[in-house]
Amino acid sequence: MTLLNTLLTLTNFRSPFLRTLVPSIGLAYAIQAEDGRDSRFDSIRTSPPKFLGAFFAQATWVSLCLLPVLALNSVPATTLSALPFLTLTDVIGVLLYIGGIGFEATADKQKSQWMEEKKNKKHNEDFLTRGLWGKSRHPNYFGESTLWTGIATVAAGVLVTNVGQAGMGFSGSLGARLGALAMAGISPAFVTFLLFKVSGIPLSEEKYDKRYGDRKDYQEWKKNTPMFFPKF
């Protein structure tokens, strides 16, 4: 059994229930870190057209994020068994995933703890600059992008091989392999695009710029702290 088959079996990620549950847990934890609410939806939930648009946008997001896994699930297990147990892309992908989810979870935990301390009057800071938030202005988003890149790396390492091509019914030509690579890469590319251009970084930066943009300490933190890629 290949490492990929082992992971799919252990996580039961072939189950549609878990495909929905895993991203939902991350979202729920993030909302909890924001004091039990997601302010991005304040103006959406009161407008049915906007709410419907957000619903279908999230459905598209989930589908594109899961595309590498769905593509792998289309390859029969008996076909995957012809692959080596461990490949270089397996190692790189798993390390990226573990590092990414660990980075995101740590950043969310630090923010949650910071907000709890603020609620308990242990500090009077208006924005978080400690821990990973002193290395990147959006460490949680960096972690999220990285973990999806890890999943895509594992998937791409299989889908472009002769085994993966045959399992999906592809011809194995250069175009077919590039298509398989695109099926894997669209997940982190789409997530990162959303974070940079739509619902992640722009909304957060705009909110904090409006609140603290005229403060010197905020300007210093923003100047000295990378927006996305952490600086150690």
TrEMBL record:
Keyword terms, alphabetized: Membrane, Transmembrane, Transmembrane helix
InterPro entries reported in the protein's UniProt record: UstE-like
Regions that span the bilayer: 51-71, 83-103, 147-168, 174-196
Pfam families associated with the record: DUF1295 (PF06966)
Classification of source organism: Eukaryota, Fungi, Dikarya, Ascomycota, Pezizomycotina
UniProt-recorded name of the protein: DUF1295-domain-containing protein
Source organism (scientific name): Aureobasidium pullulans (Black yeast)
Domain of life where this protein originates: Eukaryota
GO cellular component: membrane
